[in-house]
Amino acid sequence: MPPEVMAERGPVAAAQTRALPATPALSARNFERVSALFQNVSGIRLTAAKHALVVTRLARLAGEAGESDLDRYVERLLAGALPPAETTRVVDRLTTNETYFFREPEHFRHFAELLERHPERPWRVWSGASSSGEEIYSLAMLMADRLGQGDHRWSVLGTDLSTAMVEQGRRALYPAGRTNGIPGPYLKRYCLKGTGEHEGRLLVAGALRQRTRFETLNLMQPLPAGHGPFDAIWLRNVLIYFDVEAKTAIVRRVLQALAPHGVLYTGHAESLVSLGLPIRGLAPAVYVHA
Predict the structure, then answer these.
(1) Model pTM greater than 0.85?
(2) Which residue among 94, 125, 155 closes a domain?
(3) Residue 15 has pLDDT above 50, yes or no
(4) Active site residue 45
(5) 24 pLDDT tier (thresholds 50, 70, 90)
(6) Residue 85 sits in the same domain as residue 109
(7) Active-site residue among 89, 92, 124, 160?
(8) Given the residues 33, 45, 57, 201, the one annotated as active site
């Protein structure tokens, strides 16, 4: 046999023809069922366009549960054959969490002006979709800079549906590459550079962490007793995931926790104008009680 023919049939050729690992499959029926579960818990509806995303995010959870078949995993989940905490893990995995420090800086400039005009206020602030904590610590840095860290009574509460994101926010430990939005003076003053096992990461300074609190909260459910009042509420880039009815109900609920003089910030792509709410615009994506 000619050597060139032998080469074609050697290890390289075998590697080229070896089958790639199969992508886990999830039937349309079970996609709808797990989407309904997610909507029931979170209020967020996953469209058919998210099918591939759901498959990708559930595949690892299924493997950790000892199940290679996604349909079987979903059936066991819905039948209650998996531990109750598995539903929380599914909701955590399907929740979109995209954030970064000082996102939409126009809002931070607006808030800085409010702080400077009313430095006498205690300034209780709530971030209703705090994700992994970058928004919380951005607010804390700004408030520490404008109000000081001494006797002034200011605090920031961060809440999120995802327990995993809440825990990450409490840790306050971030990859160094995620800090591009932090102003240089704030980076030096309020962040600690990681060393050893934390090389390449930074930790938000303890003085700021003491002024912050993270809790799990579902915006689709009644707010806890004693929640508020807040001088400023940040509800940004989360309303886009809800239909009009749910969005309206969420904002009405949140407004109950907003102080009479308080300010509500939403994402720039989240207009509230057509919802018939008792609010008026103060600036782009900034509202106060009507």
Answers:
(1) no
(2) 94
(3) no
(4) no
(5) low
(6) no
(7) 160
(8) 57
